[in-house]
Each structure stands twice: as C-alpha cells, then as structure tokens.
Write a structure and sequence with these properties.
Elements (H helix, E strand, L loop, with lengths): L2 H11 L3 H9 L3 H22 L2 H4 L4 H18 L11 H27 L4 H28 L2 H11 L4 H8 L3 H16 L8
C-alpha cells in the first residue's frame, strides 16, 4: 500500500460515522468496510445476547449480523438513513437487529404453528418478551429522533402520528398542505427507515 493510500485509509479509520455514511452513500466501499469493522463485533454481541434458546437452535447470529449490515448499507445508499453530525450509527444498527430478530422469531413461531397447529405457553411467553423489548427500544429511538427535530417539525410529526390529516395539520399550524407534506417526508423518514424490511 502506498503512503498516500495508507494516509487515506488512516483518515477513514478516524472519521466520524457521519462522514463515513456520506462516503458510503457516494459508493465508497472502503468507508463501508471501516463502518463494518467499527461495529461488527458490537452488533454480534448484541444479537447473540438477544437470541433465546428456541431461536438460537435454528438461527446463526452471524447470519443476522450480515443481514443487519446489508440493510443498513442499502438504506444509507438509498438516502433512507441519515447520520446527524456528532451522532453514531449504533442506535440504528441496534434497532435493525431487534427488528430482524423479532421477524425471525415470528417466522419461526408461524412455522411451528403450521407444523404442530399448537403453540406452547412457553413459546408465547418468549414471543411476548421479544415484542416488549423491541417496542421499548423503538420507543426510545423514536423519542431520541423527535428530540433532534425542530419544534415545528416535531409538532407536525406528532400530529400526524396521532392521526391528523395533512390538511388538518396545515390548518392548525397555518401552513400550506405542500409545506406540511414536505416536512413530514423530511422528518418522517428518520422514523420510517427504522422498520425497513429487506432480507428476512
């Protein structure tokens, strides 16, 4: 590796998640590799700690880790995920991990119901525990995301979550329908991207 290449690689290693994600969006494979190396072990430990006994019997933690990173990189390149300056990708990676674990658990339970036509009380309890942990973590991330929005954008998004139409929100906030829709698209993608469904 030449000196200039070495310096470039060293620069990426010390780069923030925000700058690396921007490079990934532009197709920089080295930046993607740095992010993978930065978080792969942590994501594996997180996924492994969340695998229950029943799920572990049919699920390889490493397969889920690879799927998590594929989803994250595709989301970044598509513009669905944005990393704010000063923040990290960890919350996003953890949410994607939980989402995939939950989806795998639901899929496994569905297969068991098809084959046995019966679900044990323990299986139901395991599924409920997974749902609660996922919901709690998603709620934390949603609250964190909302706090990063401008007050007016936060109000618009909260009104939409409560079921108000774009037209109703525009009247309440004295904004045009077009402005409300644009702000919802900009703010909402931070939340909607957390549930992006790809591989499983």
């Amino acid at each position: 590796m030449t000196s200039s290449n070495s310096n470039s690689w060293a620069g990426k290693l010390s780069s923030t998640d925000h700058s690396l994600a921007s490079r990934v969006k532009d197709g920089d494979q080295d930046a993607a590799h740095v992010l993978y190396k930065r978080y792969a072990q942590r994501v594996f430990g997180f996924v492994d700690s969340k695998l229950g006994a029943k799920l572990r019997a049919s699920t390889d933690a490493e397969d889920i880790v690879q799927s998590v990173f594929r989803s994250m990189f595709r989301g970044v390149q598509a513009g669905n995920y944005e990393v704010e300056p000063g923040s990290t990708l960890w919350n996003l990676l953890a949410v994607i991990s939980l989402s995939k674990l939950r989806r795998r658990a639901l899929h496994q339970n569905a297969q068991r119901r098809d084959s046995e036509r019966l679900v044990s009380l323990q299986t139901v309890a395991d599924g409920e525990a997974m749902d609660v942990s996922t919901d709690e973590f998603l709620n934390i991330c949603i609250r964190d995301t909302l706090q990063k929005l401008r007050p007016s954008d936060r109000e618009i998004l909260l009104l939409r979550i409560q079921g108000f139409t774009v037209n109703e929100i525009s009247k309440r906030m004295s904004l045009s329908d077009r402005t409300v829709a644009r702000r919802l698209r900009t703010s909402g993608k931070h939340l909607a991207s957390l549930l992006l469904d790809d591989d499983f």
